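Help!! Second protein's tokens look totally different from the first
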Amino acid sequence: MAGRPRGRRRRERASGWEALVWLGPALLLIAGVVVFPAIALARASFSEYSITGLRKGPAGLDNYRHVLEHPALGTVLRTTAIWVVAVVVLTMVISLALAQFLSKEFVGRRYVRCALIVPWAASLIITARLFTLLLDYYHGIVNTVLVALPFVDHPVDFLGDDRFTLASIVAVGVFVSVPFVTYVLLAGLNGIPNEVYEAARIDGAGPWQVYRRITLPLLAPALSVSTVLSIIYVFNSFPVVYTLNDRNPGFAHDTSITFMYKLAFKSADKDVGMSAAAGVFNVLLILGAVAVYLRVTRTSEGERA
């Protein structure tokens, strides 16, 4: 009788080592891609660097204080909030409509689905650069069409005029975000059993009642996942914001991620330590935004329950 528990423990230890062997490559990848860069970022944020990027020694909390005292910080945070909220909300609304459309049977649906994924599959740098050419003041196709049609008398400076720059960047951000979110929501819609809809119709529910009381509640997990991923993705979206805003001086249309880059390489500061401190703040901003969204989502789900 005493040998049986010992044998069970031996088997549990063996299965634990087997699991570790299988998980080992993934854990090493996480350690190399996530843990080590996070430690390096935190270390750099407490260090002082020369203008050439050489570490000179510890800096304490000076880098964090300099970031918080930076005159452009308020503008950057406001732009970041507008950028994230606008892109995520517009992406979710448009993607939900597209997912509903693509879930229906129609001629050519396969080709439409394939065409939709192209903006997401293409490189963000290439897509952003393409839009800088399309929106160019002198030779852009968009301005050529607007001037040819009776809409405007002269070209619009989409990427240079403060009235249009952020809106143009948001439009491109939505364009590259919609495909992924649409496919996530489409998978959620395809996972809803048809029997549920048939039962609702038998009970006399109308289209709006079916959508509000059946489709949206059953689609809630896909909506939550896609929203959280979109928040993280948009917060960290460097290529779109930087490429479209590269010609403008200062930080008027920069988000927290491009602000961090410019502190190290493009501004008069050229301070790697400040850039690392801004990177730590950026991580905390992302985690805070995701935590607030998840808290609000759980609260609303609890109230509905």
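Here's the second one for comparison:
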Amino acid sequence: MPRTTRDTDELRSAPAPIQSSPALPAAGATATTVRWKVLTAMIVVLVLWASAFIAIRFVGDAISPGPLALGRQLVGAAALVAVAIIRRPPLLRGRTLALVAVYGVLWFAGYTLVLNLAERHLDAGTAAMLVNIAPLLVAVAAGVFLKEGFPRSLVIGLLVAFAGVVIIATGGVGAHADALGIVLGVLAAVLYALGVLVQKVALREADALSATWVGCVIGAAVLLPFLPQTIVELGAAPAPAVWAMIYLGVFPTAVAFLLWAYVLKRSPAGVTASATLAVPAIVVLLGWVLLGELPTVLGMVGGALCLIGVALSRRASRPRRG
């Protein structure tokens, strides 16, 4: 009888191999799902950010750079705060809040204002080319300061995509560029790169939604000196220009920056930023369709190289098998 009881206890305590086997497929399926979500979010970000270059050019002289930046951030902040009220993300404190504040000043305020100024002197395509120096700066800085290293696929992808940017800038679009516009475009790229690096550090502790809505609100607050001018200009601006500003606030700002934070939290900064090298190619296509800017043969070749470079650099984020 004791032997029978012991045998029964051993049978009860023995692990069930059939139940443990689905764990690996389930984990693999989850990882694949996350990768597809990240990829989809990144594609949406690229299209929305590319459309911002077109929308800024569309507004033209109807709304000046400062009021356009403030109006865009106010609309974006209102949309993000509404989402935050519904989702109730954790509040930011201490060092994390300070980093998000710096990111808000650099990107939501500084980058937006300088880009608006640059597009007074550059066409949308050339502005996109210059701004996309930023991913190269981010990749190098992230490799050095954030210890992300320099995977071979990332380096190759960056070189291929940068070659595409150079080809587009020299032989694609950009007939209306001038020296001041080029300086402003490079400054916008520097602000963009600094913003990404600070945001990446902040997202180690911050929730993506919290970092985005707080950053946008701080960016809008920094731009408040333009409020009186904004009220005057919006009262006189044509309806299409006002709607373009609202579009900039809701989609390239609120939606795209929220998705960007989601992607950046789950991917290396260098690899994520390198994906935005596809933006110039999308801008060329949108400029062709919406603004009547026909791309040259070199423009199309450069755009293809941008997309190929992005595809190569994204391979760096895939986990190794085996």
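Reply: Different proteins will give different token patterns, so don't panic. Residues 23-59 form the longest helix (37 residues).
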